[in-house]
Amino acid sequence: MDNLTTNICVVGGGIAGMTVALEAAETGKNVVLIEREPYLGGRVAAVFHYFPKLCPPTCGMEINFRRIRQNPRIQLFTLAEVESISGKDGNYTVKVRQNPRFVNEKCTACDECSKACTIERTDKFNYGLGKTKAIYLPHPMAFPMRYVVDPAYAKDESMKACVEACSYDAIDLSMQAETFEVQAGSVVYATGWKPYDASKIDNLGYSKYANVITNVEMERLAAPSGPTEGKIQRPSDSKPPLKVAFAQCAGSRDENHLPYCSAVCCSASIKQATYLRDSLPDTEIHIFYIDIRTPGRLEDFYVQRQDDEKIHFHRGKLAKVSEKQDTKNLIVEAENTLTGETTEMEVDLVVLATGMVPNTADEPPPLDAGRDECGFLVASNGSGIIGAGTSVRPFDVASAVQDATGKALEAICAQARE
Amino acid sequence: MTQRLRVEPDTSFIKELQAAGGGSLKKCYQCATCSVVCELSGNGTVFPRKEMLWAQWGLKDRLMADPNVWQCHQCNDCSTYCPRGARPGDVLAAVRTNIFRNFAFPAFMGRALASPKALPLLLLAPVLVLVILIGSSPDLGFSKAPPPPGTEGGFFKYFMPHGVMEALFMSGNVLIFAFAAAGLLRFWRGMKKAAPEGRDIKFLPSLINTVLEIFAHSKFRKCQVNWTRSWAHLLVFYGFLGAMATAGLAVMDMTLLGNNPPIPYSSPIKILGNLSAVALLVGSIALILRRISDREKVGANGYADWLFLVFILIVSVTGVLTQITRQVGPYQLAYIVYFIHIVAVFFLLWYAPYSKFAHMFYRTLALVYLRGAAGQTEAVPADAKGEQRP
Question: In angstroms, what separates the C-alpha of B375 from chain A's closest C-alpha?
C-alpha cells in the first residue's frame, strides 16, 4: 500500500465523519476517510428511526453513501486505524494500519459463504443481542457492500468451506494488515461514542435482571434488521411487553457516573415510545424523568406524546429496580415529586436511557489534543486536530451533521495554513 | 382546584443549615433518588426530597414540624446515591441540630450548646456545683483519705458521697425533664398542626410499640451504606441504659439492702456495670473512628456531633478508670478521675434537652407521632397535569 498525500484526513466514518469528508470533497478538496469498522455509518446505521421526523437511515444515510461512491476525491479505508499522528496545521503525517477484511472487491454479497460457514460469533452490531456467522455482512445496507471475516476465526480450518462456497473468488484468507502513511494538511477526529456501561448503575439491575435493557438495545429490537426482525420482545421469554418503563438519566447527570447530560436520551425514549405505540398498540408506556429535555422543535415532538393516552410521564427518577423471580417482571420505584407519594409499579420491560461516552475518553488521538475532564475533544491550542460530531459533545443526528459541516470548513482553512 | 402558597423564605435559616453541615443543599435538583433509595422512606412517609426543597426555600416552620426528619437515621444511603452530591443526609442532620436549638427552653441554653465559645462556661457549672458541695462540709475534702473497704458509704464517702450525688442527680433530672417537656410540647403541637387534618393519636400503644422498635433498632439496621453505625449505636444505647440501671441498682443495694460498697465482682450489679462500660467504650470508639475515617459514608461532622460523642467517651473512659484507680495507686488520683467522671455525667444529663443528646426525646416522639398518625403527606393539588397515579 503506497503512502498518500491529501488535503484532509478524517478519522471516523460515522455520520459526522462522512459529512466532513463529503462537504470538503464537494468543494474540491481531497479527503482520506478512515473508519475502524468494516462499514460506514457508525451508530446511526444502527438506529431504527431518527427523531423528530422518524426517518430511517436507509433514506438519509443512503444519500451520503451515494455521494461518497460518486466522488473521486474521497479515498475510503475501512477496517483502518490510526497508529500515530505527527506534525501541525498544513502538514500532518498520519500513520494508518488497515486490518485485513479477508474478502476482496469481487464480493457480490450473495451470502453463499455465510450459509456454508459453521462458526458463530457475537453480533457486535446488534449490541450482543444475537449471533452472526464468522463470515458476515455487517448489516443489510452496509457500505461498502462486502462481507467480512471475523479475524479471530480467519485461521480456522472450517473456513475453507466458505472459500469453496464462493463462486467469485472473493475470499482471501491470506490477506495481511498493511500500514501506510497519509500526508494531510489537516486532521479531523470524528470517532463518535459508545453507550455508557449500564452494569455500573447498581440500583437499576442491568446485567442482573434479564428484562432490563438499554436504549441502544431497544433500538435494535425495534429495527427490522435487528436480532428479532423488528419485534420488540422481552429477553427472558420473547413475549411482547405489556407495560414498559423508561428510566431517564440512567447514569447521566450523576456525579457517580456521567456528570453531564447526553442531550438525546429524552427524545430517544419518546421516539422509542412511538415504536411501541406502532407495533404494540395495547402496551402501556411509563417514562420516569427528572426533566424532559426537548429543546427547539423537539418540544412539539414531546407535547404530542403527552396527549397520547398510553404514554404516561412521571416526574421522579426511577431509582430502584427489583425482579419478581417467577415471571421475571420488574418492580420499579420512583417518587412522584408532584404528589409526594411513592410509585411502585410492576412492569414487563425496563429500558435504561443511558448516555454517550465519547470514544476519545479512553482512546484519545495519538497527538496531544485538548480534552475536557469527560474525554470530549475541546478546541486545542496544541495539536490543531479538529473534533467533530459526538467526539466534541452529545448530539442528535441533525445537529451532528450541522457541526460536521462547520468543521469541514475549519478543516479546509486549517489545511491551507503554512 | 389550585392552592396558592405564599413562600416566605427564611434566608437566615438557610444560612444556618448550610453552616451546620448542609452546605450542599442548593445542589439538589429534586430527582427523588434519595426518597427511593432510603430504606426508611415509603408508605405515606416519603422523604428526604421534599425536605430538601423546603430547606432550599427556607421554609423553617415546615421543617421544625416534620416528623420525617426524625425518621431519618443518618445512614447516608441517600447521600451516596445522590447524583448531585447534595448530601440530603447531612442536610437533615443540620435540620435536627437546628431543631434542638429552636425548641430549647430557655432559648439561651440552646444557643450555648451550639457555640464552642460557651463550652468553658458550660463546664464551669457542674465543676462549681461540685466544688461548692465539697467545700460546704468539714467532713469532705480532696485531702481526706477514704475509709477502708466495706465501710458504709464507700470509697468516696469523704470526697463526693453517693447520697449527695444521687440527690443532685435526681433533682437535676426533674429540672431537666421539666425544661425538656416545655420544648417537646411545642414540638408535638407543631407536628399536629402541620398535618392536614387533626390526627387522633392513640398515644400509649404508639409509645409502647415505638419503644420496642427502638430497643430492637429495627429501623436503624435497615441502613445499607453505614450499617456499622447501627451496631455501634446499639452498643452505646444499651451501654448507657445499663450504666444508668447499674447506678440505680447500686444505690438501692446500698440504701434498701444495706450493703456496703464496694460491690463484689461476682454480683450481677457489678457485672451489668462492667458489661455496660465495655459496650459504651467499644460503641463510642467505633462511632468516633467512623467519623474520622470515612466522611463520605458517615456524613458531615459538626460541633454538636463531636461534643456529644466526646463526652460519652469521657464518661466511659473515666468510669472504667475510676474502678481501676479506686483499687490501685494513690487515692487522690481516684478522686480526680471520679471528679471528672461526675462532671462529664452531669454535663451530659443537665444539658440533655439542648445538646445532641436530645435526639432521644425528639426522635422517640416523632416516631410515636408517625406510628400513631395515618400518614404524613402534604396536601396534594388535585390538577397535577399529565401525571397519573399508578
Answer: 11
CB of A182 within 8 A of CB of A238?
no
Least CB–CB distance from B384: residue in A203, A335, A338: A338
Q: Which CATH superfamily is domain B11-102 in?
A: Alpha-helical ferredoxin (1.10.1060.10)
A58 vs A48: CA distance, rounded Å: 9
Point out the residue among B49, B377, B386 whose CB comes nearest to the CB of A306: B386
pLDDT digits (tens, 9 = 90+) for B156-208: 888 888 888 888 888 888 888 899 999 999 999 998 888 755 466 777 888 88
Pair A218, A268: CB distance under 8 Å: no
Mean pLDDT of chain B: 86
**For all residues of chain A together, what is the average pLDDT?**
94
If one compares B124 and B206, the residue with the highest pLDDT of the two is B124
How many whole angstroms separate alpha carbon A154 and alpha carbon A159?
A: 7
- Does residue A77 sit in the same domain as residue A145? no
Chain B: closest CA distance from residue A252 (Å): 8
Structural domain of A203: 197-354
Task: Give the ipTM of the model, two decimals please.
Answer: 0.88
Across B173-310, the runs of DSSP E, i.e. the strands, are none
Cβ atoms B56, B86 nearer than 8 A: no
Which cell numbers hold the place of B216? 430492637
A77 inside domain: yes
Residue contact A312–B388, C-beta within 8 A: yes
Q: Which residues of chain A have a CB within 8 Å of the CB of B41? A: 342
Same domain, A220 and A152: no
Domain count, chain A: 3
Say whether pLDDT at B275 is over 70.
yes
Measure A332 CA to nearest chain B CA, in Å: 10
Nearest CA in chain B to A333: B36
Residue given cell 408532584 in the structure block: A338
Q: What share of chain A is helix, strand, coil (3-state, %, to 5)?
A: 25, 25, 50
Cβ pair B32:A254 closer than 8 A: no
Which residues in chain A are contacts of B83 at CB distance < 8 A?
Answer: 249, 253-257
